[in-house]
Design a protein that fits this description.
The complex is a heterodimer of chains A (about 30) and B (about 625). With about 30 residues, chain A is mostly helical. Chain A is built from one helix and no strands. Helices cover about 80% and strands about 0% of the residues of chain A. The chains are: A mainly alpha (about 30), B mainly alpha (about 625).
């Protein structure tokens, strides 16, 4: 599958959301 | 500086921005279409921000966290409207843009009346648009007045009028172009405001480590959808055979989403679709700006406001869902951030009110005044008529609002359900569903009546039919209306002239927007994926989330929502880009530029200075 801007954005934001959760609620938020 | 001084500083800076763009818009809007649909020249990023701000109103900022506080995580499923509102755009925005470009439609009434060959459709759209532009917008204007009263001490009536006056100024002066510029800023303020308030609340109560166990210890009714596996017999879960009451069963959540799907089917969004230079921004607005960015604010930070508010509510004196957010703001925000979040809330309210007032007034000016009263009105007369309508409908609505808030909330709430009914017309226009003239008109009329009868807030028989079987009035209206439209269409076929016109529309649309082989394969898969997502994320099977899994201290239902939101982003990407529902290739965009067949004149030919200057040519002058 060709990886273009839509793929970078879509999967980028999903990964960002997961990382954010882990860091903010898992580490900093504690 | 005091809190009030900070608020005034921010508000005045915000007003200067609004007024500046009102004047700029007025200078550039010299033709009817330049004023009404920004000359079909809105750039990509402006539409992405503006359409996102329009979709999420003051309700998102104030009402939504309040209801999470009141009803718990079962209600928090409503946050999935970050996906269900734009998914309507995924289905219809691109094809509406194509039709607007080819036939020169300016209002949705132009499109429906041409395709179905009846002026009845124009009038029905005018009614729906009027409901939106007056009552739905006015709910926003009054809410902003109430907030202004709360944080700056300005009396409600004075504040409401003052805030409405600024909105009407830039809407009336500059038309859709000014609305888009102001909406763009409002979009950023709205999302940032929600995040800031949620983060301050979380920080102030001792962080997630303190808050998570307290949320987990709340009464089960705040943490679960009623019913589900292991529940007492008779507890509602997927559906409840009741009437006259709102119970957040799986069915109610699903059909309430139908009501919100009406937002991007509304007449205002048809005009947003027409106003774009090209359809490139559509998939980005739907999959990324709405589903991800607004979703990010809602699934984490709005939920923290609501559930955190449930934990700290007794300490800070929250007594009703309406005062949750103002109380959180006053208790936890220092002056400068209070001002920032206030502007965010005002932005959320006004970014919804402005486009509905703007498009509502231009729909009245085009579909009623120009069409029936003064067909020879020139550009300036049409623009000034729109401006007068914008002032008049806002003034009338404010008077009603300040005198009978109960009626206003009721009628404002109906607007989105009526928007959902536009699906009936759109399915025919955009996808060639077998809906004929008589079917479309009767389907819409019956849909409107069905919504009114089954809506608990307005039904003459609320105890018998109100939200019957925990199905929202939008669900009943769309279901019954669509059924009537399809059945009546079989009984009353159209004349040959209308059929020929529709065949031409279908042939062109299906040719220019023909899916590629890969898009066809993706679409086939999405016929399974989308219903499965709906059933599990927001439908009857969401009750499984009561006890499925949890992580990082989130209660199971909250964790369920986060996971299905992330899957929802991927689903939207697949729908918008891979299945190509809202994506149009370069060659097709170029072709749409050439393939025009204008059927709607902006002004009478004699006024335009001869028939050689087509509407597209005249728009050049307005840039």
């Amino acid at each position: 599958m060709k990886i273009g801007l839509p793929e970078i954005w879509t999967f980028g934001v999903v990964i960002f959301a997961i990382l954010f959760m882990v860091v903010y609620f898992g580490a900093v938020g504690r | 500086m005091s809190k009030e001084a900070w608020v005034w500083t921010f508000v005045i800076a915000y007003w200067i921005y609004c007024i500046y763009w009102g004047i700029q818009g007025a200078r550039k809007s010299r033709t009817a279409s330049a004023y009404m649909i920004a000359g079909r020249q809105l750039p990509m990023w402006l539409f992405i921000l503006a359409a996102t701000a329009t979709s999420f109103s003051g309700w998102t900022f104030i009402g939504h966290p309040g209801l999470i506080w009141r009803d718990g995580l079962a209600y928090a499923f409503a946050s999935f409207y970050v996906l269900t509102i734009p998914i309507t755009g995924t289905f219809f925005a691109k094809r509406q843009w194509l039709l607007g470009k080819r036939y020169g439609f300016i209002t949705p009434g132009d499109m429906y009346a041409y395709y179905y060959g009846t002026e009845w459709m124009r009038w029905l759209v005018v009614i729906v648009a009027f409901l939106y532009s007056s009552f739905y917008s006015s709910v926003q204007l009054i809410a902003s007045g109430a907030l202004f009263h709360d944080v700056a001490g300005v009396p409600l009536v004075t504040g409401s009028i003052l805030l409405a006056a600024v909105v009407v100024f830039y809407v009336a002066a500059g038309g859709l172009r000014s609305i888009a510029w102001v909406d763009a800023l409002q979009c950023i303020l709205l999302i940032a405001g929600i995040i800031v308030l949620g983060a301050f609340v979380l920080h102030s109560v001792g962080g997630w480590a303190d808050l998570a166990p307290k949320i987990g210890a709340l009464d089960r009714k705040y943490l679960e959808i009623p019913g589900g596996p292991g529940a007492k017999p008779g507890t509602p879960g997927m559906i409840a055979f009741t009437s006259g009451t709102t119970i957040w069963t799986g069915m109610m959540i699903l059909t309430y989403m139908f009501s919100l799907m009406g937002i991007q089917a509304s007449p205002a969004f048809t005009m947003w679709a027409f106003s774009n230079k090209n359809p490139r921004p559509f998939p980005w607005q739907q999959a990324i700006a709405s589903t991800f960015f607004v979703g990010f604010a809602l699934f984490f930070f709005t939920a923290i406001q609501g559930m955190g508010g449930r934990v700290v509510g007794p300490e800070i004196g929250v007594t009703s869902d309406r005062d949750l957010v103002p109380k959180l703001m006053h208790t936890y925000l220092p002056g400068v951030w209070l001002a920032f979040v206030t502007i965010g809330a005002l932005a959320a309210m006004q970014s919804t009110a402005a486009p509905y007032i703007g498009t509502g007034s231009t729909i009245l000016a085009r579909d009623v005044y120009f069409r029936y009263i003064r067909p020879r009105a020139g550009h300036a007369e049409q623009i000034w008529t729109s401006r007068v309508f914008a002032v008049v409908i806002t003034a009338v609505a404010l008077v009603i609002a300040l005198n009978s808030r109960a009626a206003l909330v009721m009628l404002g709430g109906l607007a989105t359900a009526f928007g959902t009914l536009m699906y009936i017309g759109l399915l025919g226009v955009c996808y060639g569903w077998p809906i004929r003239r008589m079917g479309a008109v009767l389907g819409l009329l019956v849909g409107i009546v069905t919504v009114m009868v089954t809506d608990t807030n307005i039904s003459p028989w609320p105890q018998t039919f109100g939200f019957l079987w925990t199905i929202h009035s939008a669900g009943w209206g769309l279901g019954v209306g669509l059924l009537v439209a399809l059945v009546v269409s079989r009984l009353f076929p159209d004349s040959e002239e209308i059929r020929e016109r529709q065949r031409e529309v279908r042939a062109w649309l299906n040719d220019i927007d023909r899916p590629s082989e890969s898009q066809k394969a993706w679409r086939k898969a999405m016929w399974v994926v989308v219903p499965v997502w709906y059933l599990f994320a927001i439908g009857p099977f969401a009750v499984l989330g009561n006890s499925a899994f949890s992580f990082l201290g989130f209660p199971p239902l909250w964790a369920w929502q986060i996971v299905w939101w992330l899957l929802g982003i991927i689903m939207m990407w697949a729908l918008c880009f891979k299945a190509g529902l809202s994506f149009l290739g370069e060659a097709q965009i170029q072709r749409a530029e050439r393939d025009t067949k204008i059927v709607v004149q902006e002004v009478a030919p004699a006024i335009a200075g001869g028939s050689d200057a087509g509407p597209e040519g005249r728009e050049e002058a307005g840039r």
